Amino acid sequence: MTLTGQLLIGQQTLTGDRDVIHGINPATNSPLQPAYAGGSAEHVEQACALAWAALDRYRETSLEARAEFIETIAGEIEALGDELIDRALAETGLPRPRLLGERGRTCQQLRLFARTVRAGEWLDVRVDTAQPQRQPMPRSDLRQRQIPLGPVAVFGASNFPLAFSVAGGDTASALAAGCPVIVKAHGAHPGTSELVGRAVARAVKACALPDGVFSLLYGSGREVGVALVSDPRIKAVGFTGSRSGGLALIKAAQARPEPIPVYAEMSSINPVLLFPAALQNRAEALAQGFVASLTLGAGQFCTNPGLVIAHKGPALDAFIGATTELIQRSPAQTMLTPGIFNAYESSVNALAENARARIAAVGQRATDPNQGQAHVFVTDAADFLADHTLQAEAFGAASVIVQCASDAEIRQVLEQLEGQLTATLHLDDEDLQQARALLPTLERKAGRLLVNGWPTGVEVCDAMVHGGPFPATSDSRTTSVGTAAILRFLRPVCYQDFPDSLLPTALKHANPLSLRRLLDGQRETAKNAE
Ligand code: NAP
Fold it and tell me: Aldehyde dehydrogenase domain spans which residues (predicted)?
């Protein structure tokens, strides 16, 4: 397919009239064709008008029709074949196997949401039937279902050009909820975005859905992004990226006459606790697992293990020694963009210059542009507690090991941490009591707690939580990965004393969708009618 560099506004392709961006091959710093001219406020206006016009029809599509649409998107993405992988490879520097895996994950994610849509549990139907004889007052017939919030603005992430970009988790969950989506493509991979955007637009057409169900815009976040978030027809935002970008969009959303939710995933250092017996019994194996997780994908994962916490002593020294050897052998890796590489360099330089931390290990030298070297730093709990900058996210393969003198210090370090996506516990049987004592703190701090694993590698499934207290996300009640992500884009509506003929299909007395409703306080097990 020939890339055109054009905006996709519904089924229309338009050329932007703002500054041009090119995809950049980070391995060579060379620009890629074509040029992508940014959209303007007028393009945002057109996309929002179309999305608004599509809303009422799209949100009342049958469960089957909506599920088929989402599956059609997955099929269209797969049909792009190698062209998609080749372009993503050129734009991101990510290795081919990683991109093949990410495409698989993206399509599996879409199909999982199709399954979720079909099952209809997300409608969360609740029925309290009328009690005309109730004393002293009769009870009305009350029925609740979830409806979509309205058009959603999605900001594609730089570090997942497929799974968290144009047809990634935010888009899939919003479309599943019944919300039209307008994506602001990430400037790091415009060609990949165009290919996927066109695949989604083809699915919209093939399924005979209204044009405005999907649009794709390019351009500066400060113009297109803020205009999108400020448009009164946009009712929610999905974002993955930097803390400053997320906060800017939250501010714009809150400054509107009608504020809207922004589901922003921003910054997390994912603490890993090494408990004494585990450290004593397998320091070397822990170091191997740690370095593999830390250096995976040049460390450009939101779940990267950026902080290790353990008791000071010979066992931790052994872990640091083994880690140092492995890090020193680890090759420098191409990062996603020159901007992300520069931000990583600034972060590790700041840590290197910080008198409260020392460098334990640095990876092999870079041989090509934009290659990040892995870094591990060591500090003491007292220093960590005294300097908040030691817990700033260094997006890349950098981690800080905090040596603690006592259980009390470990608890203090944990209590002082900001909100996290994950917290990991490495423990053996002898450590269980100590781990149990820390669980209430860890639950308050993180969205996902892991035992004897590593936080990178987020399963897309029903039980996943990829969220957590600020600044991991802007709303700790939700997840951006897994089927529960659909709940971000829904709100309840109650229908009181509606005649059956006027009720939405999901709420009708005969339960034509065979939903498992909460009927007069009992969760239905069989697919029955009233
Ligand atoms: P970013 O700079 O936050 O950009 C993400 C998106 O938000 C882009 O589309 C960007 O538009 C837009 N944006 C940024 N600032 C904005 C503002 N003030 N107003 C409106 N829109 C704005 O993130 P990035 O480019 O992916 O990476 C930069 C840094 O983000 C990394 O170095 C890392 O620290 C962090 N990061 C964290 C995670 C995580 O999961 N924790 C993931 C990725 C990145 P433009 O195209 O105009 O910039």
Answer: 20-460
CB 66, CB 148: distance < 8 Å: no
Report the separation in Å between the CA atom of 491 and the middle of ligand 1, taken as the mean of its atom positions. 28
| Type of residue found at 37 | A
Give dist(CA 243, CA 264) in Å, integer. Answer: 9
Mean pLDDT of the chain: 97
Q: Is the CB of 160 under 6 A from ligand 1?
A: no
Q: State mean pLDDT over 515-527.
A: 89
pLDDT above 70: residue 527: no
- Per residue in 377-387, pLDDT (tens digit) is 999 999 999 99
Residues 6+ apart with CB under 8 A from 194: 3, 4, 5, 6, 8, 36, 185, 216
C-alpha pair distances (Å), 258 with each of 234, 236, 261, 466: 10, 11, 10, 27
Q: Are 141 and 497 in contact (CB under 8 A)?
A: yes
Is residue 78 a contact partner of residue 118, using CB atoms and an 8 Å limit?
A: no
| Ligand 1 probe mutation, 242, 251, 348, most atoms within 8 A of CB | 242
Distance CA 296, CA 216 (A): 30
Does residue 230 sit in helix, strand or coil? Answer: helix
Among candidates 47, 224, 257, which has minimal Cα distance to 151? 47
pLDDT (0 to 100) of residue 221: 87
Phi, psi of 131 (to 5 degrees): -125, 80
Whole-number pLDDT of residue 1? 82
Please tell me the predicted confidence (pLDDT) of residue 190. Answer: 98
pLDDT tier for residue 197 given thresholds of 50, 70 and 90: very high
Question: Which of ligand 1's atoms lies nearest the C-alpha of 393?
Answer: 34
> pLDDT at residue 413 above 80?
yes
Distance of CA 348 to the CA centre of its chain: 25
